[in-house]
Amino acid sequence: MDRDRDWKRRLHEVMAFRLRHGRRPLHASADEHEMRLGEWITAQRSDDRLGKLAGHRRRWTDENVPDWRIPDRDLAGAVKWRQQLERVRKHRERTGRWPKVWKTPDAERQLANWLLTQRARARQGRLRIESVEALEAQLPGWRGRRTHYDSLLH
Question: How far is 48 from 96, CA to CA, in rounded Å?
């Protein structure tokens, strides 16, 4: 079927972009090719919401572009979150300790504050399961020490 062939060709272009750039193409890009690929993903998301996306296409997209269902505006935040996670991981790998808030350079303080925010969100049940899984995989022990305050929350 020609439609599936054309559709698969576009999916493969998205996959190739993802391999080259380490992320999904965004429709708001200044790069024309990326913008077209991002618009295609947005159209797939729209068709899926309207029940117009064929089941086999949904499966293929799920398998090859796992974050395709996330709107671009949310994905940008997810990309920044992953970058912070990677910075904390590298800091820990380099120094052998968690980033500190006090008496440290601003960059380390920012990492510490980000990690404290993740811990607080987790305690409050406001951290997405995907984020918890990523933290546990990349930063074993990320939750830090249990405090009296923690026991009051659980």
Answer: 45
Burial class (CB in 10 A: 0-12, 13-18, 19+), 48: middle
The CA angle 92-96-101, to the nearest 5 degrees, is 60
Token pair listed for 95: 């120094």
Range of the domain at 8: 2-64
Based on the fold, state whether residues 60 and 94 are members of the same structural domain: no
Asked if 102 and 86 touch (Cβ cutoff 8 Å), the reply is no
Read off the pLDDT of residues 15-49 as tens digits, 9 standing for 90 and up. 999 999 888 999 888 899 999 999 999 999 999 99
Q: Minimal CA–CA distance to 73: which of 24, 17, 120?
A: 24
Q: What share of the chain is helix, strand, coil (3-state, %, to 5)?
A: 70, 0, 30
